């Protein structure tokens, strides 16, 4: 049996992997980047030391290997054949293209785990001058995602905008994403972005150090409520 767990929500996909793993007595872990046919055969055909069901988990095989490589294609075909007699679980840190998924077993069990569209709509809407709309959008996102994860995603977006402002293309960014980030960066000055990044970083530090009684959600709401988006907030006087 072949199972594929993939998508950009790695935290949730890890939880799904751990849930599936509980159904097996023994798990053998392999790195997809350095995978060989010998590794796969040894892991799949070795009997369980404890008896009961066993499975092979391969991490980032499809993500870390060139999709058009002949070696990758041969190994993928071999993996599909091995999965006919053994349980193979592929865990990927990104969403795998449908063209690649279609090459896997017709009996494939697929788990695509993505962040909700509302999260990216909120990140794309980050801009000075519209605090009320941002707060409403932020509240909708928190219905599906943890405030800590959303905070990390906001910080990541602000770092990307700072890089764009500085003439640097963020890593692993497609051309359409770069164009969208460029348009969004034009809504800020570099000073605003740096101030916003500092505010968000201080929020996180204050929560982790116990310097504030407020939660990361409450501090983020205070930051978003600033019409200039990134105004300083005095942590000592909440």
Automatic annotation (TrEMBL):
Gene3D superfamilies: 1.20.272.10, P-loop containing nucleotide triphosphate hydrolases (3.40.50.300). InterPro entries: DNA_pol3_clamp-load_cplx_C (IPR008921), P-loop_NTPase (IPR027417). One of its GO terms (biological process) is DNA replication. GO terms for molecular function: DNA binding. Signal peptide: none annotated. This is DNA polymerase III delta N-terminal domain-containing protein.
